[in-house]
Design a protein that fits this description.
single chain; alpha/beta; N-(1-d-carboxylethyl)-l-norvaline Dehydrogenase, domain 2; Rossmann fold; 8-stranded mixed beta sheet; elongated
Length: 441
């Protein structure tokens, strides 16, 4: 009788296993590149036909993985992209990198995961391993994914295999890739774990095995809760220090000189990206189901979610202090991406700042060299196109709000020609000879 486990392991070790990645966004595409670079034949799946067309034509649509990726994939002869999910029977390994957003009531929305797993189950064959990479609450792989896969009639660890390995991506940070970031891997049990470890070890520099998928799921949430709580701490500290007339960034600079017991976090206009604004709520929801109360996590979310409104309030107050009527004011928001030097706008606080400003000011523009225009998203479409900034255009705005401190902005020009700057990133304090009045936010 054929041994699916031994056959799959042999194909992995020989780099003959076909690796399929479902979801070709900021997580899936870099992951696919790592396996492609390791010599595996790869197959990418996505529901967006524009992504499929771009990849199969060798055109990049994301800046994060770097220029030329689509062309390199295409020219290798070891890659195809498809929106035909009937082809899920072809890969030997299926890595699921689909969104895990929140509902309107801030509860987990696993609809993308569930729909994807149902599609995999419809074509699941002996000798395939499925790995969930989407960030989710502990228990998802065992309690949600496994029953849906097992509904096809195949047996776990005899015919198919299942594991969880949380994504780790750091867009905009040079040198950090899916290949060189340590990879947590938790199999549903020993056979699945051994195969998942072998799979990732063939493409990733460092694999960190953990005992269960629940450990890996919880570790991913802890990583992002840690960031959320510390960002909330410095954001609240900024509010407190501002009320005391003390420069928050100067205090952080001073505290950061301590070589132990302190990790630097900087305040800002709120939380952005797919992880920090969402993942803590997954853990808080799961804790509530288990009878626990994650009060600290929820409080951090409240503090961070309040920051865009604070930036807008600071802007309105600053306009009034200069005898400018907010109702007729022109305001320019610098930066739409959620952090500097990237084009990722997922959950960016800039969107909320713009929406709130529209309730107060007559005209709102944004500038972002990485985001030329807005597009439909989970919270709708602002329907805006980026404007170019120059001395004359800056001077035409009653206020300029620094929401994202891209290095590509000409900061000396902004400091010299703006009539008023509301600085939510502390960028202006690094400049000499700033002429514009600056209000920290």
């Amino acid at each position: 009788m054929p041994d699916p486990r031994a056959d799959l392991l042999q194909r992995i070790n020989a780099r003959e296993a076909i690796v399929g990645v479902v979801g070709l966004g900021y997580v899936g595409l870099p992951l696919l590149r790592a396996f492609h670079n390791a010599g595996f034949p790869t197959l990418g799946f996505d529901i967006d036909p524009q992504k499929i067309q771009a990849l199969n034509a060798g055109r990049d649509y994301l800046k994060h993985p770097g220029p030329g990726l689509a062309r390199a994939l295409l020219d290798s002869g070891r890659f195809q992209a498809t929106d035909d999910f009937a082809r899920l029977a072809e890969p030997d390994a299926i890595l699921v990198c689909v969104p895990t957003p929140l509902t309107e009531s801030r509860e987990p929305d696993l609809s993308y995961v569930e729909q994807t797993i149902d599609r995999i189950s419809a074509t699941l064959r002996p000798g395939q391993i499925v790995v969930l990479e989407s960030t989710t609450y502990p228990g998802t792989t065992r309690d949600v994914v496994l029953p849906r896969l097992a509904a096809c009639g195949l047996t776990l660890n005899d015919q198919f295999f299942l594991a969880y390995s949380p994504e780790r991506e750091d867009p905009g940070t040079p040198g950090r890739t899916a290949q060189n970031l340590p990879k947590l891997v938790g199999g549903l049990d020993e056979p699945s774990g051994e195969l998942a470890i072998a799979l990732y070890a063939a493409a990733v520099d460092t694999v960190v095995p953990v005992r269960t998928p629940e450990v890996a799921e919880a570790a991913k949430l802890l990583e992002n809760v840690y960031r959320s709580v510390n960002i909330a701490l410095v954001n609240e500290m900024k509010v407190v220090l501002d009320s005391l007339g003390i420069d928050a960034w100067e205090v952080i600079d001073a505290a950061a000189t301590k070589p132990f017991g302190f990790a630097r976090f900087d305040p800002g206009p709120g939380m952005g990206g797919h992880c920090i604004p969402i993942d803590p709520y997954y853990l808080a929801w799961r804790a509530k189901q288990a009878g626990a109360d994650a009060r600290f996590i929820a409080l951090a979310g409240e503090v961070n979610n309040a920051m865009p409104a604070r930036v807008v309030a600071k802007t309105i107050d600053a306009l009034r202090a200069r005898a400018a009527d907010p109702a007729s004011a022109r305001v320019l928001v610098l930066g739409l991406a959620y952090k500097k030097n990237i084009d990722d706008v997922r959950e960016s606080p800039s969107f909320e700042i713009i929406r709130l400003l529209r309730d107060h000011a007559a005209h709102i523009d944004y500038a972002d060299p990485h985001v030329p225009s807005t597009h439909p998203g989970r919270r709708g479409d602002l329907g805006m196109t980026a404007v170019e900034i120059a001395p004359e255009s800056l001077a035409s705005y009653d206020a300029v709000v620094v929401a994202t401190d891209h290095d590509a902005f000409d900061w000396p020009m902004i400091g010299a020609h703006s009539r008023l700057v509301i600085d939510a990133r502390g960028r202006m304090r690094t400049l000499d000879n700033v002429v514009a009045p600056v209000v920290p936010a």
